[in-house]
Structures are given as C-alpha cells and as structure tokens.
Design a protein that fits this description.
The structure is a homodimer. The first copy, chain A, is an alpha/beta fold. The first copy, chain A, has a domain of about 230 residues: Rossmann fold (3-Layer(aba) Sandwich). Chain A contains 12 helices and 13 strands. In chain A, the strands form 4 sheets. In chain A, strands 3-2-1-4-5-6-11 form a 7-stranded parallel beta sheet, sandwiched between helices. In chain A, strands 7-10 form a two-stranded parallel sheet. In chain A, strands 8-13 form a two-stranded parallel ribbon. In chain A, β1, α1 and β2 form a beta-alpha-beta unit. In chain A, α2 crosses α4, α6 packs parallel to α8 and α8 packs across α11. The two termini of chain A are about 35 Å apart. The model of chain A has no long low-confidence stretch (mean pLDDT about 95). At the A-B interface, α4 and α5 of A face α4 and α5 of B.
Chain lengths: ~325, ~325
C-alpha cells in the first residue's frame, strides 16, 4: 500500500456493487486497510453479484441487498458513510441494446439517486464513480485522452456518460464531492464468467476452463488496453485518497496495448485453449469501437499510480484462481 | 410554406407535448398543411400543456393524454404514424435541479421509450427531437457550432443530451430515423406564462401583462439569441422534410444576438414596463451559461431556413396575443 496506507483506517465506506467482480475485490482491500465496509448489492439476476466473492470477508463486512433504483433505499444506505465507491451498474454493451430501459434504470436512475441522496442526507461523503471508456465511442485519435470528444455508440455508453455528468454537476454545484474514473478492460479473479455479460475476457476465461475453442470476432487485430484487478483496486483507493482528483475525470489504462488476438495467444500458452476466427456478428459490429487504448498520464501525474501486473501474469493468476474456485463461478 | 408545401398532406403525424407552447403551434401548422395530427400530452402539472392552446383546431386533431413515462402507452401512440415531432419534456433548468429525478423520468425515460417503441412497433417513422442549447454548458467560443464540446451545467442539459444520443444511436444502429434540433430561446404566443418554469421571456411577458417591474439578474448583459415561434415551427417542418438532415444535430438561432437588457428595453417600448437590476440569485448563477449564441449555418445550408421575425416584432405580437387571450393563460 502506498499513499493511502492509513487513509481508510476506521473509515465507514460504502461499496455499491460490492458483491461483484471489482466491488468485492475492492471491499477485500478496504477491509485489509482497516475500513468499516458496507457492501450494497441487490444481486440483479445474471449480473456480477456473487456471494462467493466475499466469502473470505463475509463476517467483516455489512451487506445491504437493497436496490439502488429505489431512492429511499439509497438515502438510507449513504447515511453515516465517509466514502462511497459507486461500482453498481449494468456493464454489458450488448445487453444495454437488448434491454435499454433496464440499462437506463440501473445506470442513470441509480446514479442520480446516489448523488441526490448524498446531497440530501450526507453531503460531506466523497464518492468515486467508475465509468467506462465506452463513453468516447469510436476513437478519432489514439491514445485517447480525457478531452477526446464523447460520442457513445451504445445505450450503456450514453447512460454511463449521463451518470458521470450527474456526479460532476453535483460536485460543482452542491460540493457533493466525487471523482470519475473511466475504466478500460478490467480482468482477474472474481470476474463474472458464467454468462457473456461481462466482456470478452470473461467469455474467453470460461472457454479455457471448459476446454472449448475461443471464437474471435473479425480478425482479432482490435487493440485494447487491459488492467488487472489489483491495479484497478489500487487506482480506486488512490483516487479517493487524492484530493486533487476531486471533480475530475480520469482514464485508467495500461503501459502496453495489445490486440485481442495477442491476448488469446497468451491464454493459449497458459491453457492450451484453441481458437477460431469467425465473422463479426452484425449486432456486435454495430456497437464495436475499433481500436482503443487510453492515455492515463493525467491520473499518474496526480496519484503516482502505475499498473504493475502485465497481461501474461495477470491472465495466469486469473486462470489459476478460477481453476481453484471453479464451483463458485460455474456451478 | 416553402419546400414542405405538400409534404405533410394526408400524413399521420404525432406531436408529443402537443398541448404545450411549441407543440400546439406546430400542430396548428400541421393541420393547416393537411396532416392528420395526433397530439400526445399528459398535461403534467405546472408544465406548458394547456387545452386553450389548441382551441382553434380542437375538432381537427386527435388528443391522447397518456404519459410518455409509460412504455406501453408510447408503443400504442407511435403505431401507424408517419412522422413524430418529439417535443414533450421538462424544460425548466431550475426545476431540473430541484426535482432531478422527475427531470430524468420525463426527459430520459420518455425519450428512450419513444425510440424503443418505434424500433419495436414503427421503425419506419421519422422523428424530430427538440433538444436545447443547454447541452453545451458554458460556451468556450462564440458563436457555438454543433461540434462545440458538450458539458451540461444542469440536470436538464444532461438528460436532454442523453435523449439526443438515444435518438442518434437508434438512427445509426436500427435505422429508426431522426433529426435533432437544438433550440435556443423560443418565444411567442402560447408560451406558458403562468409560472416561472418556461424561461425568462415568459416571466417578463407576465410582468408586462401584470404591470409589475421586471427583475433582471446580474447586469443584464448576457447575450442570447431569440427565435420567434413561427420561425421555430418553420424549422421543425423543414427539418423533417429534408432527408439530408437525418441522423444529424443542428442548432437553431437568430441573425442578431442581443442582451437580456436589450430585450427588456424592447418590452419597455411596447408596454411601458419598468425594470430593476437585482443580484443574481446563487442557485441560478451556478447553472447560468453566460453569453450564448449559436451558429445555425449548417441548418440553413441544408434546409434554406431563415428566421424571419425580428425580436421587436415578435415581442409585439406576443404581447398582443396575451392581451387578447389573457384569461386563457393567467386565470
């Protein structure tokens, strides 16, 4: 632990989406750092929430299973909290197109409920909101900086962008402080791998575990940046502990950018999984963003954050975790 | 009537927010142009919907008072329509801050319901969505072009921007065609002048009618552009009838830009109203955008539209209308 070594000691911290992949990993780190953690997660069906994710800290955290779409429940949840990590959300781009009204409720309404609940009942709480690189849409230049135009290409990107704006607006107008992080492809232990809703890495990991061939859409040359979960948790903890980040938007990202095919070849080395190139399905092609990698130097400058785990090591640890705890995720 | 002289003849047209200021004015023009008009307006309390607005065409239009926040009702409303003008919305910047969750439901949910209803039940309908110059936030350069960065400074601007994105996304991905117009200060007969929810001109007009002094916040030097209702109706009719506008966003605007004080002085000449300069209330200052006027040359280029009514004439006609029909608006 770096600059936030004692920052969270004894602090009351709310983690929304805390039974999910990133939320549970963050909650474990917060418990480790001496925080009093409340996990808020309504376990929306087919989403990332999974009780197994917090089994090692189950008796050290409070769990609230209310639904953030209900304003009154959010008001109760924010009371008496020092810090809030707002990770609850619908993350699947495809599902946001198939169920746009649900995505709107989960991403827009829940986030508006959160900032408004804070304004009314806990204006001194500090929040970190986890957004997505999807808000940029198709990059017009690489690497993508935070001032790149935003033109989301799917419902999820639109709603996450609106949620960003709610946080920034409440910060500016009401001093309900928050920082927005735009995450890129995050992977690691505790990913939701049971269905296809949490991005292509989770699908590929399941294929590895099941010894099924990976299907690569198109030619696999699309560039991406990848962050291992521990690095993202580190970024989250640093961002909230760094006052100069408040009221601003930052990209995360990785030092190297690699193609989807690069990633699959690494998986192949670790697990001997096979792959095949298949045509890009039309519904996915329409919302694909092409090559993407982000410029995260602004965040480094303010926080000193550096992603430490490279893709090969991270994928190895990920597969090892899921082999060991397979029944918690693929039962 | 110019290029759309016969375009609307016999066409089935839905006007959402059709009992409001712009919606009713548009509906009258559509009836005149031979369209079969359905007005959809749930008459949300304190908003612009007013039965008196359509009294001259009451027996020539169908009126549907369902609420666009209900998806099933929107699905019914869009069926068998050729064209849709989507004007229903919450327009008050101040109210969007006081009642953000309501603004979200009215502006985001209703718009998502509309595009999704069209996708499912009437994908060939063409829609014009009326957005607002508020999506830009505080201008960083003037005149503001459509590619100016968007950074809304209030809840209304955020939600209207999300609604724009829904329309553009559905246009691109599903060929559910629409055009977005970003309106600036629109004024004229049938403005909602009973309360302060429809912009400063409506407040000023009420003051004139009541012989009460106008309060100008700050020094009144903020620049704005103003469009008379007939010019906006003309722009709406032209935009839908111009295929090259589809899938794009256009500003409206006026040839001259004038200060708030300029406008008040014109009102003073017409009606002898008094004014006083008062400090900018803090809640309004926080969401004020400073000087604004838009570049509308892109829209002119495609449609040939030209705003014809200058501010002095427009205000004169507006006051005359409200003097004649005062009891319909201030009872």
């Amino acid at each position: 632990m770096s600059t936030y070594a004692t920052f969270y000691q004894g602090k009351r911290v709310l983690v929304t989406g805390g039974l999910g992949f990133i939320g549970s990993s963050l909650s474990m780190a917060l418990v480790q750092a001496g925080a009093q953690v409340t996990v808020l997660d309504s376990l929306v069906e087919h989403h990332g929430g999974n009780w197994q994710n917090i089994k090692t800290i189950r008796d050290q955290v409070e769990v609230n299973t209310h639904d953030m779409r209900q304003f009154a429940d959010v008001c109760e949840a924010v009371k008496n909290k020092d810090y809030i990590f707002h990770l609850a959300g619908q993350v699947s781009h495809g599902d946001s197109m198939r169920e746009p009204l649900s995505d709107l409720q989960i991403n827009c309404v829940s986030s508006m409920n959160l900032v408004e609940a804070c304004r009314q009942f806990n204006p001194s709480a500090i929040t970190v909101y986890t957004s997505t690189r999807q808000v940029y849409g198709v990059p017009i230049s690489l690497p993508v900086r935070e001032d790149h135009p935003v033109l989301p290409v799917d419902v999820n990107g639109i709603n996450k962008l609106a949620a960003e704006y709610y946080h920034l607006l409440y910060h500016r107008v009401y001093d309900v402080r928050s920082t927005v992080l735009r995450l890129t492809n995050t992977y690691g232990p505790r990913l939701q791998i049971k269905n296809d809703r949490q991005g292509f890495i989770s699908v590929f990991v399941r294929k590895c575990l099941n010894n099924e061939p990976i299907k690569i859409f198109g030619d696999g040359t699309q560039l991406r940046d990848f962050n291992y979960i521990d690095d993202v948790v580190d970024a989250l903890l640093l961002s909230l502990a760094t006052p100069s980040c408040l009221g601003k938007v930052f990209n995360l990202g990785s030092k190297q950018h690699q193609s989807v095919l690069d990633l699959v070849k690494i998986l192949q080395k670790i697990s001997a999984v096979q792959y095949e190139i298949v045509p890009f399905p039309q519904d996915k092609k329409l919302i694909d963003i092409g090559d993407y990698y982000g410029d995260f130097s602004a965040f480094v400058e303010r926080t000193g954050w550096q992603p430490k785990v490279d893709l090969a090591d991270g994928l190895k640890q990920t597969l090892e975790y899921f082999k060991q705890y397979r029944s918690d995720y693929l039962s």
